[in-house]
Amino acid sequence: MSIRDWPAAERPREKLLEQGSGSLSDAELLAIFLRTGVTGKSAVDLARHLLNQFGSLRALLEADLVAFSKQLGLGPAKFAQLQAVLEMSRRHLAERMRKKPALENPQAVRDYLKSMLRHEPHEVFGCLFLDSKHQVLVFEALFRGSIDNTSVHPREVVKRALANNAAAVILCHNHPSGNTDPSQADRLLTKQLQKALELIDVRVLDHFIVGDGEPLSMAEYGWM
Description:
The protein is an alpha+beta fold. It folds into 2 domains: 3-74, no CATH class; 100-217, Cytidine Deaminase, domain 2, CATH 3.40.140.10. It is built from 9 helices and 5 strands; from the N terminus they run H-H-H-H-H-H-H-E-E-H-E-H-E-E. A 5-stranded mixed sheet has the order 2-1-3-4-5, with helices on both faces. The radius of gyration is 21 Å and the shape is elongated.
């Protein structure tokens, strides 16, 4: 049966307009993106099939072009559309984060850092550079490492802080394993960067570790 033959209240698009996007399942949201199904499968059936193939919506969203295009009903055009949607989402989160000082908007900061780092297959270390009022100036991904560690050079972080005329910084990196517990190396690096940035009067406000779930704040745990 075609989705057009379903009761209006059960059609994903109509359901979204009536009840909001939060009321839709992963398959229903994906079906709206797909727009059409394939022979023998409605858009919702195809969406369910794809979620089963990838294992989760997150895995589908993070798939590369080769893996994505191998699946029934997908290809380079859909991949390009999906990447555009994801980039619009990241830019929306960046604008939301900049509306208030970072310390007054911690959830927006967390959401933005998740969008930037959670999908990375290797460790990435970055910084949110802030002005004297703790408004975000810019985010920069500074170092990329292997699957289990990253070589971070304090001198380079200091150089970027000076280049951005930053008064404060929020450090961040991801753990591809998904576990956000800081390692001893993470804590040592945080102390080293605090000392290096103190020399140029730049405060380190926090160090977030991004994994599965919510990013961990080292400041909230008193580890800085």
